[in-house]
Fold this protein.
Amino acid sequence: DTVLTQSPALAVSPGERVSISCRASEGVNSYMHWYQQKPGQQPKLLIYKASNLASGVPARFSGSGSGTDFTLTIDPVEADDTATYFCQQSWNDPRTFGGGTKLELK
Amino acid sequence: EVQLKESGPGLVQPSQTLSLTCTVSGFSLTDYSVHWVRQPPGKGLEWMGVMWSGGSTAYNSALKSRLSISRDTSKSQVFLKMNSLQTEDTAIYYCTREYIPTDYFDYWGQGVMVTVSS
């Protein structure tokens, strides 16, 4: 299975820029997607296919990468962005998720 | 409007079988695949399996021996059955639709919390 590795936690101040990384154990082409999950809620799609902004998602969110290294960037970070962010690949079977990066605001 | 809603028991005894239903609306099960994903308390997301739009299934290899996914297209329902439950199966269980052809999960159910305990 394709293992996706994310840093477990980050802390940033509002107004700053933050980059959340996701590294795949094998190539996933551009089929990497990002989700935001707030406590008590289901995951919400942010970015699909590495760099495409999902409908209704603020332009502060962006994605980049291909192959094995991917990044979700939030610029500028707002208080409402406190959440856990998961990457997920759909190039290789089975579908797999990263362990999640918990973003906290200082 | 696309919606998915999970239903099932909140409490299951160890060694028993879990049965969950995902009822969908706003799309056809013959046009989209529906996946099951679970999340233990305070932990990450685990892909469990899928009912493909054509009617075939695929499972997480770690769960394959205990897991079965089926559907009733006339009722727009997808079913999950998992046997021999243990405490580590305690989790929120989600069903989610996969968008074709880019294969991301665009709609999620609210999830159902399942606790395995005697």
In short: Chain B touches chain A at residues 35, 37, 44-47, 50, 58, 60-61, 94, 96, 98-99, 102-106, 108-111 (CB under 8 Å).
